[in-house]
Amino acid sequence: MKSFLSETSIARARSLLGVAVMSALIAGGANAKDDEGGGGWKPRVQQLEALVATLQLKQLPVEASVDCASGGSIRQALEANAEGAGLLTITVTGTCTETVRIVRSNVVLQGQGGATIQAPAGALFVVNVDDNVKNVTISDLSIAGSSIATAAVLAQKGAHAVLKNSVTTQSGSGVMALDNGVLDVTGSTLRSNNNGAYAARGGVVSISNSTIENNSIGVIAWKAGSVNLTSSLPDYAQASVGPIVRGNTTGVVVRSGGFLELADTTIQGNQNGIVVDSGGAAHFFSQLNGTGNRVTGNGTGVLAIKNASLVFSDNTNVITANVRGIVCSANPSYIVPPNFTGASGNQQGDVLGCLP
């Protein structure tokens, strides 16, 4: 593992240190007589120099390189810089067989040359962003779980992380947010997990410009968890491309107080498209980038049961070419705009049992 400070960062630290020391000298000039006894301002300036140097170093950006093919460790890089507050950028190469827990803010964990993080046998999580940390970005990595891994990437306990240009696979959940954790996913693939994305207990997962495929359940939001499938990027700078949820046994499940919002999302080729039940709520939002939501090629496009709630904002929401379009049972709430025509061309009916 290699860590270093940039020349610009070192120069900045020296400059600020010089200003602080000069200020102390000026202030101490009025008490120059105190130094005649050997205990005046010079020792105080030396103490200030040491303090400022320590504090300033903690704020400086640090770059570390980890080559797991040569025995490097992401965990060791994090531990070596645990006290820092400036941006820590860790560049990873090779295959790292380890679990990673991030408990400090301002971290970039980025892969290079096909880097992989593989869970060791028995690991419950692969990358865990924890304890209210912020400004964490994980990018350009393949992250694989184990047979018992609960999640490939987890944000929990108020933490916020962004997953970019990565693949998560072989886990209970490809990505997971719990206990008010927030996880933004963009440009990534969530493939061959039990759940592609999972949010519960106040956790929020937002997914844009990504593919969620070949999972048992593509997306699940329950127990007050929220999932946003959207074309809006994590920084909200511009509308991007919405996610595609395809080839899963069930595309989306919203259950037990979970919440789903969709904008410019495609739900395609799943055995069941979207299932909303037991107090779950799904809001099919208006288009952001001109595409709109599209639910097509599924068994049932949208199924609402057991006091669930469905809201369709407008006719840019298209439910077509499914076996059944929208199906309601056991007293769901069904809210659509006047003259809603979004459901059409489904084999066994467009809107079945739903009363606005």
Account of the protein in words:
- This protein is mainly beta and 356 residues long.
- It folds into two domains: 2-56, no CATH class; 66-352, Pectate Lyase C-like (3 Solenoid).
- The chain is built from three helices and 34 strands.
- The protein has helices at 7-29, 41-59, 74-80; strands at 2-4, 62-67, 88-93, 95-97, 100-102, 107-111, 116-118, 125-129, 136-139, 142-144, 151-156, 160-164, 167-169, 173-178, 182-186, 189-191, 195-200, 204-208, 211-213, 217-222, 226-229, 244-246, 250-255, 259-262, 266-268, 272-277, 281-284, 294-296, 300-305, 309-312, 318-320, 324-329, 333-335, 351-352.
- Helix 1 packs antiparallel against helix 2.
- The radius of gyration is 26 Å and the shape is elongated.
Provide a short characterization of the protein structure:
This protein is mainly beta and about 350 residues long. It contains 3 helices and 34 strands.
Task: For the structure shown, list the relevant keywords.
mainly beta, Pectate Lyase C-like, 3 helices, disordered N terminus, 13-stranded mixed sheet, 41% strand, 2 domains, 356 residues, 14% helix
Largest sheet data: 13 strands, mixed
- Cα end-to-end separation: 61 Å
Inertia-based shape? elongated
* Structural class label: mainly beta
Oligomer: single chain
Low-confidence stretches are 3-10, 30-35
Indicate the proportion of strand residues: 35-45%
Instruction: Give me the count of strands.
Output: 34
Number of helices: 3
